[in-house]
């Protein structure tokens, strides 16, 4: 049997690893992720080629991350994986936009899988995407049982009360943090541009906070005698 020369195998396998000059570095200089506006002006062929380039880059980065963790070494610039993932998500978004436009033009429908709003066993609402099954719906008893969920009873009602209270408290605390931040900004900079604060904190009544005593500073709370 004829032996395969290593020069034909090694370059292919080494594509799963980063360049050797980056192995002992703490930081690798890379660019930013691909934006939607940049991907929308590319052709379908270019998007197809870019997808495989990003896929190859992601495989390489995940291999290097696993290798560095195995050898307890620092993985240089781990944000590269996030940038590749963001680029791939934006690319999928552009391709989905084009598919929707094509199907709407040809058939009048989006071509996406239909989905509907359902309520799970905990009384929480969500969306269910329809998918293909081997058996029809009326014959697939397992699927029918999984979709026939009830959300009644005292335990579920108590859970929903606690869950809504948790959401309300989180929203209230977030609003209070924004309000306190606006007050501190106005206290340190009385001549701050209010239009900027209105855009940055849309859920805060900036005009009302300007006239409050806490915003002016040296606030003395009232004490009942």
Walk me through what this model shows.
- The chain is mainly alpha-helical and 225 residues long.
- It has 2 domains: 11-106; 154-216, no CATH class.
- The protein is built from 9 helices and 2 strands.
- The chain has helices at 6-13, 36-40, 44-70, 79-106, 141-147, 154-188, 194-200, 206-210, 213-216; strands at residues 115-119, 125-129.
- Strands 1-2 form a two-stranded antiparallel sheet.
- The longest helix has 35 residues, at 154-188.
- Belongs to the universal ribosomal protein uL29 family.
- This is Large ribosomal subunit protein uL29m.
- InterPro entries: MRP-L47_sf, Ribosomal_uL29_mit.
- Its main location: mitochondrion.
Tell me the total number of β-strands: 2
Helical residue percent band = 55-70%
N- to C-terminal distance? 102 Å
Extract low-pLDDT stretches: 1-10
Whole-number tally of structural domains: 2
Morphology call: extended
What is the averaged pLDDT score? 83
**What radius of gyration results from the CA coordinates?**
28 Å
Order of helix and strand elements from N to C terminus: HHHHEEHHHHH
Q: Biggest sheet, in brief?
A: 2 strands, antiparallel
Strand order of the largest sheet: 1-2
Q: Report the total helices.
A: 9
Q: Strand portion, in percent?
A: under 5%
Structural class designation: mainly alpha
């Amino acid at each position: 049997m004829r032996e395969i020369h290593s020069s034909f195998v090694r370059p292919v396998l080494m594509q799963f690893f980063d360049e050797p000059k980056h192995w002992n570095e703490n930081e690798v200089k890379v660019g930013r992720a691909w934006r939607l506006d940049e991907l929308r002006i590319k052709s379908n062929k270019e998007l197809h080629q870019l997808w495989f380039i990003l896929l190859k880059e992601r495989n390489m980065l995940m291999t290097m991350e696993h290798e560095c963790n195995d050898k307890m070494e620092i993985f240089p610039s781990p944000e590269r994986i996030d940038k590749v993932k963001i680029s791939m998500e934006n690319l999928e978004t552009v391709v989905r936009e084009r598919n929707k436009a094509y199907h709407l033009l040809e058939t009048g429908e989006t071509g996406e899988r239909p989905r509907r709003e359902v309520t799970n066993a905990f009384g929480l609402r969500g969306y269910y995407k329809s998918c293909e099954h081997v058996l029809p719906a009326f014959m697939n008893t397992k699927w029918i049982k999984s979709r026939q969920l009830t959300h009644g009873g005292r335990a579920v009602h108590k859970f929903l009360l606690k869950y809504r209270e948790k959401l309300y408290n989180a929203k209230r605390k977030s609003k209070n943090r924004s309000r306190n931040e606006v007050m501190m900004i106005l206290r340190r900079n009385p001549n701050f541009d209010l239009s900027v604060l209105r855009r940055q904190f849309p859920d805060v009544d900036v005009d009302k906070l300007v006239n409050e005593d806490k915003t002016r500073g040296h606030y003395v709370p009232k004490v009942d005698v």
